[in-house]
Every structure is written in structure tokens, then in C-alpha cells.
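Q: Here's a chain of 216 amino acids. Please give me its 3D structure as C-alpha cells.
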Amino acid sequence: MCVGVDRNKYQIQIPLPPKIDPSVTMMTVEEKPDVTYNDVGGCKEQIEKMREVVELPMLHPEKFAKLGIDPPKGVLCYGPPGTGKTLLARAVANRTDACFIRVIGSELVQKYVGARFDEGVGGDNEVQRTMLEIVNQLDGFDARGNIKVLMATNRPDTLDPALLRPGRFDHKVEFGLPDLESRTQIFKIHTRTMNCERDIRFELLAKKTYSNMTCN
């Protein structure tokens, strides 16, 4: 479903018809994702970090106001594909009863670069313009604490340093490949709704999936 958003109040206004500007279709909106922390396996440390820097400021902004400090605006989640970055972001949105809006950055750049190539304009300039617009939008969010930007990437080394300066993405959370204990937990999570034998040796299965990612 695609919706129109009031940029001043940050509220969803109206559903949009199917035939709309292609840039809007890049956004996927979930008013409240159905993913919880219990659905995210192998990310104990990452969950604790996200609860500290995202959940706490959204559920208890008065604590930050009392201390006279601004809550973090953004969090960079990085690591190999399929290690739970987006899944955890959805779980945080569920816990904070927040609307989750997902935008795929590569599609955003490709759309505008492709359009400008058709007009005979170089792609590098369009990438820079897109980056500048993203930075401007990040700086435009006020410090009320009710909007959080979570950026997920598997190539943090390719990010523009302008994105990572203080005041934009102040916190970084690394997602690595799951260890033995984490893989065992993941197996238990994904089989809890299955009709399985009770004596399944999940740890043995975990040992046989060494170096596998969560999505495998």
C-alpha cells in the first residue's frame, strides 16, 4: 500500500492510487510490523543496542529532556546480507508502535540516475544530488525523538563520510554471521510453528550450518 505523508506533521494522510509517481512506489509502508524481538534470533547484543538508542528515546523522551540532551537521530546497521538488519528494524517499529517506512536506496539512485541519463546528463552528478537531498532530509528532522532513521548496508566502506558525521548517524551497530548458539536459537524460532519431533537436536543442526547467514 502507498500513502501520502504530511511532511510537517509526519502523519499518514491518505492512501494513494496505484498509478502514481514512481518515486513513491519505492517506499514500503507498514503501519505496525508484526515482527517482535522474539522473532529475531542470534542478535542479542544488537537488540540491546537498538533498544538503548531507538526504543528508549521513542518510549521515554522525557528522560532525554530531563537531562537536556537530544536523542540520537539515526543508526547505521551494517554487516553481511541476511544477518537480520531489516528484521530487527521492523521489530523495533513493532515495539515502539511506530509506522515503518522502508526505502531501498539503490532503487532511489537508479531511478534518478536513469532518468537523467535519458536526458544526456552524467550519472555522477545525479548521485551527488541524490546524496545531498538525503543529507538535507536527515538534517531537516527535528529533535522531538519521534522519527528515527535506520540505515542498513552490507558495504559501510562505500558510504559517503557526510552521512556519518555527528548528528546524522551517531550510532553504528554491527551484524555478523551467527555463532553456534545464535544458529541454534534461529532453528528453534523457525521451527516453533512446525509440526516437528520434540527430540530434534538443534545444536547438531547448528554445527552443520557453520558460516551460514540467518536467511539461509
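Q: Can you summarize the key feature?
A: The chain has a mean pLDDT of 79.
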